[in-house]
Write a structure and sequence with these properties.
Blueprint (H helix, E strand, L loop, with lengths): L2 H35 L1 H9 L3 H17 L7 H17 L4 H19 L6 H11 L4 H15 L5 H20 L7 H5 L8 E2 L2 E2 L2 H4 L2
Antiparallel strand pairs: 1-2
Helix pairs in contact: 1-2, 2-3, 3-6, 4-5, 5-7, 5-8, 7-8
């Protein structure tokens, strides 16, 4: 075999190694993003022009999240927010639309307390998706109902479900990175005693089952 042929073989071998390395790196990156973002990964792919573009967007979210000063809540602050949630939940019986609006504001307040920027809703979703992808769809659905409630366009059942959705993210934000609060405060967010609301059942606890 001539020297030129040997050079060609070496070049081909190097290219094959590089190609294999690239494919393995892409596969590992994809697995990492799928594990971290869960259903949010597939949503990003559906909403992007290509899978590569979606993955670049998710990687950018990770990079931004790493620059944020996300911090756990101390025990006292968590208990204060748990009490506020109980008050909001109790007001649902008499004023469901107002309670849902309050729940939205309370979730936003907890986000800010944890260190998340809260100016734009879409940016909130992007930032939350990195560490709270499992409950992100709850937030989307609840926020949509809250927006319609402000225009008095949401039914009582939708408002009840919004409270369930808000509660999912609220509890995750409240408990992430901190000690579990006393049982009495955990129980305070378990749901209502079944009082009817405009002909509908207001037991949020049962709605979750």
């Amino acid at each position: 075999m001539t020297a030129v042929a040997w050079v060609a073989v070496v070049i081909v071998a190097v290219l094959v190694i590089l190609a294999v390395g690239y494919l393995m790196s892409a596969r590992n990156r994809r697995r990492h993003l799928q594990d971290r973002f869960g259903p949010e990964y597939e949503r990003a792919v559906r909403e992007s022009d290509s899978r590569k573009e979606a993955e670049q967007e998710l990687l950018a979210r990770e990079e931004r999240h790493a620059t944020l000063d996300i911090r756990p809540l101390d025990r006292q602050t968590r208990e204060q927010y748990a009490r506020k949630w109980t008050e909001v939940q109790e007001r649902f019986v008499d004023a469901p639309g107002f309670a849902v609006t309050e729940a939205d504001a309370l979730v936003t307040a907890v986000m800010a307390e944890r260190g998340y920027p809260t100016d734009e809703f879409e940016q909130r979703l992007s930032d939350l998706s990195v560490a709270h992808a499992a409950t992100l769809d709850h937030y989307r659905k609840a926020h949509d109902v809250s927006s319609r409630a402000a225009r008095q366009e949401a039914t009582t059942e939708e408002l009840r479900q919004a409270m369930v959705h808000y509660r999912a993210l609220f509890q995750e934000l409240l408990g992430d990175g901190a000690d579990v609060p006393p049982n009495d405060h955990d129980d305070a967010t378990d749901g209502y005693d079944g009082a009817p609301v405009n002909g509908h059942h207001a037991d949020v606890r049962k709605a979750e089952r």
